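May I ask for a protein sequence together with how it folds?
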Amino acid sequence: MDMETLIPELAVIVIIVLLGIVLRRYVSKQKITVKHIVFVGIMSAMGTALAVVSFVPIGPNINVDFSHIGTFIVAIALGPFYGMITGALIGIYPMTVFGNVLVPPGKALTGLFVGYLAMKLNLIGRNGTEKPAETGNKRIPRIVPTVLAGWIPEAVFVLITMGIVGIPYLLPMPVVEGILVKGVAEILLLGIVCEALFASKAIRNALKSFRNH
């Protein structure tokens, strides 16, 4: 095995270990249920299906990808641990398309940070009801900026690995910039979709059966 193959694999192992260490304390306090696992599985499958359907090339090494909708729904509903797992699972398909083993860890970062921010900001109350942010009679959108902020670590990760270090391969900086600009547009659109989804009382009530009480 040459060094060019070994370095990306070692990087994936290190990232997974670090994420595991970060979440060890959080996970130890959680009750993992079959419903949680099923929910993660369904959202991962939905995200992967959207990735397959939306994977339209718009430039060299640049494809439309709406798979993070599953990551966002799980991260907001269940928190950082499940968001991280969903992001990693959703990253498997694009990993096989691009031959980039760092796609799952990158998407896992988004699930982790979106879930963490959603939990800290209490976007969804413990009983599945949203803690509203309002000015007068207007509801202030909070999910869009939350998912955008939670995606920043993945964007930095992409910039460093493929634009600077060249792991697993180096792309021209204009291509990397195109990937990131495309990513911002996707995240904003998916954030708007999630904003509409979680504004529904029916959906918030449905989440009660998936959350810890």
Summary: Residues 3-19+30-117+137-210 form a domain with the Arp2/3 complex 21 kDa subunit ARPC3 fold (CATH 1.10.1760.20). The chain is about 70% helix and 5% strand. The first strand starts at residue 57 and ends at 59.
